[in-house]
Amino acid sequence: MQNIYIKDLSQHIGEEITLTGWLYNKRSSGKIKFIILRDGTGLLQCVYFKGNVTPEVFELADRLGQESSIEVKGKVKAEPRAVGGYELDATDLHVISEAHDYPITPKDHGVEFLMDNRHLWLRSSRQVAIMRIRHRIVKAIRDFFDNRGFTLMDPPILTPAACEGTSTLFETEYFDLGKAYLTQSGQLYAEAGAMALGKVYTFGPTFRAEKSKTRRHLTEFWMVEPEVAFNDLNDNMDLAEEFLEYIVQTVLKDKQEELKVLERDTTKLENVKKPLPRISYDEAVEILKKNGIDFQWGNDFGGTDETVISNQFDRPVMVHRYPAEVKAFYMKRDPQNEKLALAVDVLAPEGYGEIIGGSQREDSLELLQARIKEHNLPQSAFEWYLDLRRFGSVPHSGFGLGLERTVSWICGLDHLREAIPFARMIYRNTP
Amino acid sequence: MQNIYIKDLSQHIGEEITLTGWLYNKRSSGKIKFIILRDGTGLLQCVYFKGNVTPEVFELADRLGQESSIEVKGKVKAEPRAVGGYELDATDLHVISEAHDYPITPKDHGVEFLMDNRHLWLRSSRQVAIMRIRHRIVKAIRDFFDNRGFTLMDPPILTPAACEGTSTLFETEYFDLGKAYLTQSGQLYAEAGAMALGKVYTFGPTFRAEKSKTRRHLTEFWMVEPEVAFNDLNDNMDLAEEFLEYIVQTVLKDKQEELKVLERDTTKLENVKKPLPRISYDEAVEILKKNGIDFQWGNDFGGTDETVISNQFDRPVMVHRYPAEVKAFYMKRDPQNEKLALAVDVLAPEGYGEIIGGSQREDSLELLQARIKEHNLPQSAFEWYLDLRRFGSVPHSGFGLGLERTVSWICGLDHLREAIPFARMIYRNTP
Predict the structure, then answer these.
(1) Taking CA atoms, what residue in A is nearest to B221?
(2) Are A51 and A91 in contact (CB under 8 A)?
């Protein structure tokens, strides 16, 4: 068992220790060989002086290829100039498994080559930093809801019907029961949960068989969806802004080192504090027009529209009350204007677009039945969902936050594919 | 927005408050009507004295059906004899949505009827208790690994090849790339993660299209899978026993109230502390023979075998070193005996069977290639996995724990279908 990790070296200064890991990089300077060891928790420069080790060890240090697994021995010393702040005055070196011709070298590689070798690419410092930040975001999301009395409700992945439209479904044969579909959202199930437990959240993988090749789409992505009984649209926005502040400020507090590896300019993240600006769809359309964009009221915003709108603000902006026609059937209409849905989208700054979509839900049985008919959805598949309105309907609201879009924004990534360990896209389902 | 919840009533004794929720039950006693309110956080008896409220309110209290959504007003007082320990001396009552003929009444219903109405069944006290314990177990699992330096690595759900055998796969068309399969285990991806980050865990839904109708099988279930570089089989068992102790003792500490609702005898759970007994497969076979079971060395254990073995112990038992033939291709062989795999299964007491399966992994490229051939698996699909042995292979181990089996055991359930919000089985994919 690994007893000492690089991240804990501060507790071992002056000690003679043994570490295991992989050769991340090496260089030579006459009578000195430098080996950079990585162990998954950090990097450590191990210094082999010709006079301090046997000739065999010195020769070995020269020969080993990148990503060879090794055991190193030596004395730990503080060395502010070295990576991580420590250095090993090495006395010994053993090979566990010698590697040669490791495909990913410090030189530049094309993205497709790196994605083909994703299982190895994950070992690079940049990818390690992203995975650590992703983990911290997941934990912040769960802590936020756990500490506020929400109950986790894992929704099913295999579902009998579509929830967000039928054109982008993955389907599979389900024994003798016909077809089942991979879930597009846990929301309908979260609503059942909210009627049982008051405040719930779902958090799991969701699927869209979208034939989209943009940098903002994955076919498989994780989504967290809180749902709260008795919350209206304003309560929903209050929850969303508190939530976003908590996630971003937690990462800023705990993950400075990783953000530095990614060379992320964090000044724009520091602004993510409530209150977030709230504008109506109508006001957003005005912004587009003032910026010379020919936008037709009633349409949904495209990526460029979102960027123009969000560029007006120094933090995420909440846009509420969209035309009902561009939104899902289950959203409640605005009592002030039947053409509007009580929806809210949150647009991230810096061109990262929509990261949250939510709404108050229709709580009238009759109106919901009418919407299902208007949308040509099969009412039989939704009878269970209609039961939530037949038996004790209450006002309720919720939203969904896309994990990979959030990771991408906070890390400052160019493409969602780096925000998840093994991305799935229209042209990729490997490795 | 709901401002006061039943679980927080101790902070409001003597205050006049308003609460919202659902009518859980009611009874009448001449000039008094009792309404049991539920709000997802608890139950509260609201007492309507004829003289204290208007005749309309008194009549309304009489008329409302189960699961009507309501708003109640009144003064909170401590009442040790009432459910939850508090009572509302009620002064007013408003209907939000009146319900009649709620399908699930306090009388007995058949299981299939309850599963058909799972979206409503979740509102009952027993199901609420199970969901809260499930949530606490999920949080304990994540806290355990988060606090020990593990990094979360979400594995893909859509995978290009089978990992645990090809007979139980759900498949879907994946654009122009042919078929993709729903993951049976995140392990292979966790191994890639362990080589990058040292200690990782995956935790997500996994799928088995098993035509099994037992009470211990779901087609969709959640699994947590830690994987640790440089851990051998013994380290793996150390981790597993510490993990199980942490989960069970955490639930015992935090969820006494819910365990009481379930009438769980917790004395047997209190024993779940390390060290757990460790016996070899050979010793387990001896136990079966001593108990008069005609068992052939080389077979895998069936449900009855597991129960006989686990009945010998007062806590979960770890059975290690199984015949390699009944285990997966990626398990390392025992250097002492080539016929054995360095596997470990943990059997829960009280007949709950296998809850953990794990092993040390084969770290030799040549042996792993040979196993893939022996198992008739397509080597091309595993090239990326073989790369983990080509480039810096190290000893490593891990295991998987099935969430629903663990929930079922800790809650003392008869069937896995109650351990997950919306169970998926061979004959059910609704609601």
Answers:
(1) A156
(2) no
Does residue A106 lie in a domain region?
Answer: no
Q: In this model, does residue B164 exceed pLDDT 90?
A: no
Residue B77's identity, in one-letter code, is K
DSSP run (H or E) holding B89: strand B86-97
Contact A189 B390 (CB under 8 A): no
Domain membership of residue B149 (yes or no) is: yes
Q: Which of B142, B238, B429 sits opposite A174 (nearest CB)?
A: B429
One domain, residues A301 and A334: yes
For residue B7, the SS3 value is helix
Q: Return the amino acid letter for A62.
A: D
Q: For residue B343, give the 3-state DSSP assignment.
A: strand
Which chain A residue lies closest to B100 (C-alpha atoms)?
Answer: A391
Q: How far is it, in rounded angstroms, from Cα B226 to Cα B203?
A: 9
Which of the four pLDDT bands, split at 50, 70 and 90, describes residue A163? low
How far is the C-alpha of A34 from the C-alpha of A23, rounded, in Å? 10
- Residue B143 shares a structural domain with residue B86: no
Residue A244 exposure: Cα atoms within 13 Å on the Cβ side: 35
**Residue A46: in which H helix or E strand, if any?**
strand A43-49
Based on the number of CB atoms within 10 Å of its own CB, is A213 exposed (0-12), middle (13-18) or buried (19 or more)? exposed
Residue B427 lies in a domain: no
Contact flag A172-B172 (C-beta cutoff 8 Å): yes
Interface test with chain B among A11, A154, A203, by most B beta carbons within 10 Å: A154
Q: What is the longest distance spanned by two Cα atoms in chain B?
A: 86
Residue with tokens 């991979």: A182
Q: Which residues of B touch A157 (CB under 8 A)?
A: 157, 182, 205, 207, 220
N-term to C-term CA, chain A: 29
Q: What does the block give as tokens for A16? A: 């003679």
Q: What is the CATH number of the domain that holds A217?
A: 3.30.930.10
Tell me, rounded to whole angstroms, the distance of Cα A195 from its chain centroid.
Answer: 28
Which residues have CB under 8 Å from B384's CB, separation 6+? A117, A119, A430, A431, B192
Confidence band, pLDDT 50/70/90 cuts, at residue B3: confident
Q: What residue type is assigned to position A325 of the chain? A: E
Q: What is the pLDDT of residue A165?
A: 64
For A373-388, write each residue's pLDDT tens digit: 999 888 999 999 999 9
State whether B188 and B63 are in the same domain. no
Q: Comparing C-alpha atoms, which of A78, A112, A84, A80 is closest to residue A24? A: A84
State whether A78 and A133 are in the same domain: no
Could you tell me the residue range of the domain that residue A64 belongs to? 6-97
Average pLDDT, chain B: 96
Q: Amino acid letter at B27? A: R
Q: Which among B269, B281, B360, B359 has a CA at the least distance from the CA of B316? A: B269
- What pLDDT, on the 0 to 100 scale, is given for residue B253? 98
Q: Any bridge partners for residue B221, and if so which?
A: B206
Element (H, E) at A224: strand A220-229
User: What's the structural domain count of chain B?
Assistant: 2
- Return the exposure string of A148-185: e unless at least 16 CB atoms fall within 10 Å of the residue's CB, then b: eebbbbbbbbbbbbbbbeeeebbebebeeeeebbbbbb
| Terminal CA-CA length for chain B | 29
Claim to verify: residue A28 and residue A72 sit in the same structural domain: yes
Instruction: Answer yes or no: is A111 within a domain.
Output: no
Indicate yes or no: CB of A394 within 8 angstroms of CB of B69: yes
Per DSSP, the residues of A92-128 read: EEEEEE---S-S--SS---HHHHHHTHHHHTTSHHHH
For chain A, what is the largest distance between any 2 Cα atoms, rounded to a whole number of angstroms? Answer: 86
* Domain identity same for A56 and A156: no
Across the interface, whether the CB atoms of B220 and A158 are under 8 A apart is answered: yes
Does the complex come out with an ipTM higher than 0.95? Answer: yes
C-alpha B138: how far from chain center: 8
Question: Among A97, A131, A162, which residue terminates a domain?
Answer: A97
**Residue A312 and residue A255 in one domain:** yes
